[in-house]
Design brief:
This protein is α+β, with helices and mostly antiparallel strands and 335 residues long. It contains 10 helices and 5 strands. Helix 8 links the parallel strand 1 and strand 2. The protein is rod-shaped, with a radius of gyration of 37 Å.
Length: 335
Amino acid sequence: MKWNIFPTQPKAVIALEAFALAVAIGYIDYLTAWETSLFVFYAAPILFVTWYGDRRSGVRFAILSAAIWFVANYEANPYETSEGYAWATINRGVYFVFVAIGCTAMRVQREENRAKIEAMTRTRELEQELVRASEREQMRIGQDLHDGVCQSLAAIDCATECLKVELERAALPQASSAVVIQKMLRETMVEARSLARGLFPVQMDIQGLPAAIDELVATTNRLRQTTVSFTTHGELHLENRETAMHLHRIAQEALSNAVRHAHATQITIDLEDDGRTLVLTIDDNGRGLSAMDKSGAGMGLRTMRYRAQVIGACLDVSSKPSGGTTICCTLNLPP
């Protein structure tokens, strides 16, 4: 919010306008009786000059305002001695100087707060851009892995199949070795495809978030010694692909922490949409949150919290008394 009403006016013009205002107040003060004091109104031009100028200009104008007050009230003042009236003028001048100093402090504080807000906004934008860049890089690697390495492995599998057939036709004992090699190769292909899908969940574009999480669960059940179940409730559809990607990454990170750090054997993922809010819950029977932190899962938890913050969701992480961890991400849906 801009406070400067006259941002293009030079300081000399602002000082002249403030001087005219102070003289006008002094003239009205001269016309009124002593009992009707306009003392507080002298602060207006002082604030004006200080806010759009600097502290030195404000202090100088405060002294000038005290002089205008002295002239305006010289004939009507009730003081019996000139020393008493001079002392009263000095008191007014000190008050005016404090007004200028206080206004300067307010302006400096406002500028510092605005700079902090701008820095925080810029930092948030940079953090979001880093996350987007990371997502783009992961997608690129996943796409390259899927289109490059996986295709090469598929070609090698075809060549291995041909070699196995030829060895079997020749009734050579090396045929059994070819069978073992082909089996190991196909297992490697499965792992490579699973890795590619983890880096680049292609279903996110086709069927949405539920399909991507379902693929993640299937891959985890296939490659890990754990049982993961996934349930959905309500009409699940996110038009914002970036939001869906962040929710997928939260589920992916929570699942990885539960398996690698909490050593969970049973994990349930629930995705619920009631039309107003979307709730993603990951529940496991692992060693609990404290054990996960000690195992090095703290960075993953911070990453999940940041992803939730980026999309405007609330992430709650809690340990159950019986053991295990529950991660709940709640997102308010647009009307």
